[in-house]
Amino acid sequence: MITAKSLYKNFGSGDSQVQALRDVSLSIAENEFVAIMGSSGSGKSTLMNILGCLDTPSSGQYQLAGQIIGQLDDVSLSAMRNQHIGFIFQSFHLLPRLTAAQNVALPLRYTEIEPEQAIARANDLLDQVGLGHRKDHKPHEMSGGQRQRVAIARALVNRPKVIFADEPTGNLDSKTSKEIMQLLCDLHQQGNTIVMVTHEDEIAAYAGRVIRMRDGQIMEDSACSVARSA
Length: 230
Fold this sequence. Notes:
The chain has about 230 residues and is an alpha/beta fold. It has a single domain (about 1-225), classed as P-loop containing nucleotide triphosphate hydrolases (Rossmann fold). Helix content is about 30%, strand content about 25%. The chain has helices spanning about 45-50, 75-85, 100-105, 115-130, 145-155, 175-190, 200-205; strands at about 1-10, 20-30, 35, 60-65, 65-70, 85-90, 160-165, 195, 210-215, 215-225. It has a 6-stranded mixed β-sheet, with helices on both faces. A hairpin with a 6-residue loop joins strand 1 and strand 2. Helix 4 packs across helix 5. The radius of gyration is 18 Å and the shape is globular. The two termini are about 25 Å apart. The relative contact order is 0.20. The mean pLDDT is about 90. One of its GO terms (molecular function) is transmembrane transporter activity. InterPro entries: AAA+_ATPase, ABC_transporter-like_ATP-bd, ABC_transporter-like_CS, ABC_transpr_LolD-like, MacB-like_ATP-bd, P-loop_NTPase. This is Macrolide ABC transporter ATP-binding protein.
C-alpha cells in the first residue's frame, strides 16, 4: 500500500535550514493499523503530510497504491488524494455552516456522483458511526466526540484505500477517546488501512505496529506486544 524510500524534507535554506526528515524508509501493507509517535519536532507530522500527499519530500521516493507520487502533476495528485485517501484531523475541520450530512458529503462534490446520491451515502455513513439522528445538525450543535465521528464519516465517504488520522483524540476526554478508538479499531477490522499520528502511548497501543521518531529519523519500528481494543 505504502512504500517510502530515503525520504528527506528540508525547510528553509542556508544557515536557517531545518532538516525535518532524514533518510526515512518504510513500508505499510494493506489493512495494517500503524501508529507514528514522537515528541514535538520529531518529524512525525511532516511524515504524515508526505504520506497523505499534502506535502512533497525534498528528495526520496514515495509510492501509494502503486503510484509514484513524485511523478504526478497537481491535477493527478488531487485526484489521488480524493480517490484513495481519507483524513481525520485533531481539530475536525468541519465547515460550520453545513450540516453533518453536508460535511460528510463534501468530498463527493469533486466526483461524478449526483448530489442526492452523495447525501444518501453520507447519511448511511452517519448511521454507521452512530450519528444518524444528528445528520441535520451543524457542528456547533454537537459535542467534540460527535464532531469527530462526523469527520470519520467524511474520511470514509470516498471509500479510500488508506485513512490518515492526525491526533484523532487530541481534543477529546478519556471516555470519548476510547469511543473514537473503538470506531477506528472497527474500521480496521473491516479492512481499512489506518496510519495514525499520536503522542500518547495509551492511544498508540490500539495499533498493531508503532513507529517511533526522533530528530527526523525512525528510531524504532515494532509490533505492539498486545494490540488493544477499546
